[in-house]
Design goal:
It holds the Pfam family Glyco_hydro_43. It contains 6 helices and 48 strands. By secondary structure, the chain is mainly beta. It folds into 3 domains: about 300 residues, Tachylectin-2, Chain A; about 80 residues, Immunoglobulin-like (Sandwich), CATH 2.60.40.2340; about 280 residues, Glycosyl hydrolase domain, family 43 (Tachylectin-2, Chain A), CATH 2.115.10.20. The strands form 12 sheets. It has a 6-stranded mixed β-sheet with strand order 1-22-2-3-4-21. A 5-stranded mixed β-sheet has the order 24-25-29-28-27, with no helix packed on it. A hairpin with a 2-residue loop joins β34 and β35. The longest helix is centred in the middle third of the chain and has 11 residues.
Length: about 700
């Protein structure tokens, strides 16, 4: 229940039982937004197709939690369209900032129009002091209509001291202000379970729930012929990820036989969406889902055209009518929509003279322009109409080279392969809450502008025996071995440094079987053993490994490149600005050392440098040693953790680095530190070999 997911369309699954089903035109999504102050409230969004959702009321609450709850916070809104023309909503009564994860009440609400609600709070220990007087938490209620008994059944999980979370049920009274009976156990299984979600299909009740057993993985399903008992738990998890999940929800797409299973990947800050026709076999469809908000555990019901119009009349704002673009050339994570401007960054090679923005519009909104337009001379004005409301936006389309990769990636390492005559970029897979990624990918390019994802090259969960978490900050090197080449890939996993080997720069890579660095150098007490960098000295042919967070360490590698000479370990931390991300390269007789200052979650994350006459130091720090930093006026923040590469073709050096997502990263607070993107800009030097400060750009290398 804590970090939970959408629940969609319970009415749609009972179409066979309803004789007077309304003609549905879209969906209403009720949700809350988080665990912080003011976030545990009911929000609304609408959708025409069940895939694209637009927040109403500027993504602000539509009900004040303080007016309907005991705690001041409500979570997990679940709405049911009743058989009697009423809407029923149930909520967890919990305010996490003050209460933690313990609560005793739920809220029952009733409405005729989805706008005006009456409410009742049911405090379980007060209502049932003899049997449930010691209940410590009451989580994630949902409502379903029992056609056999002609009653509304509410079900939720509860925990008593010394016990486990158990899912119970009770039938609501006629006015939906209380229960007719004492709660009874609904699902019987060994171990704990929460987040129940019941779907009726083909005469069976399919009961999805989160398995809370110690070490449990995720979502299980039980099936029964009866709504209130006899559920048999299946042996297989139905979620399609190895990450921790909870808060499953299901819905049936209007007018189809397709069901969606959704769940919260709560350790990564993401949802996953899967489609199925039989509620047994599911296929991930994450890329098809779009929202202009970040929901937590909610529900979606199908609604009519009239209902949608009333909701939009009440809470739709013309500032929110556009949610991005459906054109695949648009970098969707970098779209900027302001009060009167829509900025669409597109990939290199896009024809601006004949470009269709394919704007994703709120249901019911009409546009003054359709199809392909000429954006080569600048922005065009689009007028949008919703009923009697109108709004004009200037739509600008720009070919932007940065970021160079589509998606969230960070800590980029780049090499030029002599064997393949191409560039290879090895980043951290980002976008995971708390830097919790578990795999690495590689990208290939002939020109530093056009990049192809060559896929996963190392998955900690499947291919590394000594660590299965925190896949961070890799580096790689190409080495001539006999008449061919070998590729050595050094990576961080579980705050240790490992190494894998391949015969091709795009892998597959095979892990060596043990960490290369899992200890602190002598004299070092703090920091982490992360962020490796590998460098081969062109003067001696010796190879060196650098690593460290809070300190910079170096050791010579043995000839096998998968072990180090421990007697050569040396700590060469340049100064107090050093945080992490060492990068070493050689140019015109000088050894250059670069590193990142500050924290990757900080907008002030930046790169500095020093030089040396040896790959082992000592380091000489120039008076002005800043390499790259933020440019707030351009919305560029958190520029750091870089690598460099040299192009013989045009005698040019390049810096590859990550920054906060633009434009949304700076609004994310600490979360910006794992919503980063990779950029490339020119790296230049003066006649004396000093690094000229890089101005991070939006255009990058695109022309």
């Amino acid at each position: 229940m804590r970090l939970l997911v959408l629940w969609l369309g319970v009415v749609a699954v009972f179409t066979a039982c309803s004789k007077d089903e309304p003609k549905y035109a879209g969906y209403l999504f009720a949700y809350f937004t988080g665990n912080g102050p003011g976030q545990e409230q009911v929000h609304y969004a609408i959708s025409k197709d069940g895939y694209n959702y637009f927040a109403l009321n500027h993504n602000q609450p539509i009900i004040d939690s303080k007016e309907i709850s005991n705690s001041g916070g409500v979570r997990d809104p679940h709405i049911l369209r009743g058989e009697d023309g009423w809407f029923y909503m149930v909520l967890t009564d919990l305010y996490v900032p003050k209460m933690g994860w313990e609560n005793t009440a739920m809220v029952l609400l009733k409405s005729k129009d989805l706008i005006n609600w009456t409410h009742t709070v049911i405090d379980i220990p007060q209502t049932y002091p003899d049997t449930f007087g010691d209940v410590r938490r009451v989580w994630a209620p949902q409502t379903i209509y029992d056609h056999q008994s002609d009653q509304y059944m509410v079900y939720w999980s509860m925990l008593q001291p010394g016990g486990r979370d158990i899912i119970y049920y009770a039938y609501a009274n006629d006015d939906f202000t209380g229960f007719k009976n004492e709660p009874k156990q609904l699902l019987f299984k060994e171990g704990a379970c929460i987040d129940g979600d019941i779907v009726f299909k083909d005469g069976k009740y399919h009961f999805f729930f989160k398995n809370e057993d110690e070490g449990a993985k995720g979502i299980l399903k039980a099936v029964s012929d009866s709504i209130n008992g006899g559920y048999k738990v299946g042996p297989e998890y139905v979620d399609q990820t190895d990450d921790a999940v909870e808060g499953s929800g299901t819905f049936k797409l209007i007018g189809t036989d397709d069901y969606i299973l959704m769940y919260d990947m709560y350790t990564t800050g993401k949802y996953q969406f899967c489609i199925s026709k039989d509620l047994e076999n599911f296929k991930v469809i994450d890329e098809d889902i779009n929202m202009n908000f970040h929901p937590r555990h909610g529900s979606v019901i199908p609604i009519t055209e009239e209902e949608m119009n009333k909701l939009m009349e009440k809470w739709a704002y013309m500032d929110d009518v556009v949610m991005g673009s459906g054109n695949p050339a648009v970098r969707k994570l970098n779209i900027q929509i302001s009060e009167d401007t829509i900025y669409l960054p597109v990939e290199a090679g896009t024809d601006l003279k004949s470009f269709d923005p394919q704007l994703n519009l709120m249901p019911g909104v009409k546009s003054s322009k359709e199809g392909k337009q000429d954006f080569s001379a600048g922005a065009l004005t689009y007028d949008f109409t919703l009923g009697e409301k109108t709004k004009s936006f200037k739509v600008q389309v720009s070919v932007d080279g940065n970021p160079v990769l589509s998606g969230y990636y960070a800590d980029p390492e780049i090499i030029y392969s002599e064997k393949e005559q191409k560039y290879y970029l090895y980043p951290t897979s980002d976008g995971f809450h708390g830097w919790s990624g578990k795999y690495f990918e590689v990208f290939e390019s002939p020109d530093l502008v056009n990049w192809i994802n060559k896929g996963t090259i190392l998955d900690l969960r499947k291919e590394v025996s000594w660590a299965d978490r925190n896949a961070w900050a890799p580096c790689a090197i190409e080495k001539k071995v006999g008449d061919d080449y070998k590729y050595y890939y050094y990576f961080t996993a579980a705050q240790k440094v490992g190494v894998a080997v391949a015969d091709h720069p795009a892998g597959p890579f095979k892990d060596s079987g043990a960490p290369l660095v899992d200890f602190k150098p002598e004299g070092v007490n703090g920091g982490q053993e992360i962020d490796p960098d590998v460098f081969t000295d062109p003067n001696t042919g010796k190879s060196y490994l650098y690593w460290g967070n809070g300190y910079m360490a170096v050791a010579e590698l043995n000839d096998d490149m998968v072990s180090i000479k421990k007697e050569t370990i040396k700590v060469i931390t340049p100064d107090q600005t050093f945080r992490e991300g060492t990068e070493v390269f050689f140019r015109n007789g000088k050894y250059y050392f670069m590193w990142s200052e500050d924290d990757t979650r900080s907008p002030n994350y930046k790169v500095r440098y020093a030089t040396a006459d040896s790959p082992l130091g000592p380091l000489t720090i120039p008076e002005n040693n800043l390499v790259i930093e933020k440019i707030p006026e351009q919305g560029i923040y958190g520029t750091g953790h870089n690598s460099v590469v040299y192009s013989k073709e045009n005698d040019q050096w390049y810096i590859v680095y990550h920054r906060f997502n633009r434009p949304n990263g700076i609004k994310m607070g600490g979360d910006a530190g794992f919503h980063r993107e990779v950029c490339i800009d020119l790296l230049n030097f003066d006649e004396e070999g000093n690094v000229l400060q890089v101005q991070p750009t939006i255009k990058g290398l695109a022309k």
